[in-house]
Backbone:
C-alpha cells in the first residue's frame, strides 16, 4: 500500500538527478568545471528543498493518500505507522537518489554502486533487529529503512564534499535559470 507513495517520493530525486547530472557531465567534458559545479550546487539545493516540501506534503495528506492506494481495515494502521516513520526519512531517500546520479555522472560508477549497496546491506541487517529483536514490527521496518537511507545519504554527501570526484558541492552559484534547466531536463525520467 505504501509502495506507490515511496516510489513517488524517490522519483523526485530521479527528476533532479537525471535532470542535472548529464548537464554537469557535458560541462565537465567541455572543461567548464565552474559551470559543472554550478549545476551540482543547484541540483543539491533543489533536492534539499524538495525533500522538506515532500515531507510536509506526505504528513499533511497521509490519510487520503493511504486511502487512495487501498489502505483499509487492518492494513490501514500498519500502513499509517510505516508511512509516518518513512516520511521522516524522505530527505534521505530523495537526496540519495538524486545525488547518486551526480556521482555516477562524474565517472565514479563504483562509488555510485557503493551508495546503493551500503543502504541495501544496512537495511537487510537492521530489519531483523528492529522488527523482531526490538519488537517494533512494521514501524521497525520503516525505521530500518530510514536509517539505511541516512547511511547511504551520508556516504553520497561524503563523496560529493570530500571524495575523489572533481566537482564538489560548494553552496554557491544558485541560479533560477539553472534550476529551471535541471527540472526541464529531468521531467521525462520523473
Residues:
Amino acid at each position: 500500500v505504501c509502495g506507490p507513495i515511496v516510489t513517488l517520493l524517490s522519483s523526485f530525486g530521479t527528476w533532479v538527478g537525471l535532470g542535472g547530472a548529464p548537464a554537469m557531465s557535458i560541462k565537465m567534458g567541455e572543461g567548464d568545471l565552474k559551470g559543472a559545479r554550478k549545476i551540482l550546487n543547484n541540483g543539491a539545493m533543489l533536492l534539499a528543498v524538495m525533500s522538506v516540501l515532500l515531507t510536509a506534503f506526505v504528513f499533511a495528506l497521509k490519510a487520503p493518500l493511504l486511502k487512495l492506494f487501498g489502505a483499509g481495515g487492518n492494513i490501514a494502521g500498519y500502513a499509517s505507522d510505516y508511512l509516518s516513520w518513512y516520511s521522516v526519512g524522505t530527505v534521505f531517500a530523495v537526496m540519495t537518489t538524486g545525488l547518486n546520479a551526480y556521482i555516477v555522472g562524474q565517472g565514479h560508477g563504483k562509488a555510485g554502486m557503493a551508495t546503493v549497496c551500503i543502504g541495501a546491506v544496512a537495511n537487510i541487517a537492521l530489519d531483523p533487529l528492529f522488527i523482531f529483536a526490538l519488537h517494533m514490527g512494521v514501524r521497525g521496518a520503516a525505521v530500518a529503512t530510514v536509517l539505511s537511507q541516512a547511511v547511504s545519504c551520508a556516504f553520497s554527501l561524503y563523496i560529493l564534499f570530500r571524495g575523489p570526484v572533481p566537482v564538489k558541492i560548494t553552496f554557491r552559484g544558485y541560479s533560477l535559470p539553472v534550476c529551471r534547466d535541471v527540472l526541464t531536463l529531468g521531467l521525462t525520467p520523473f
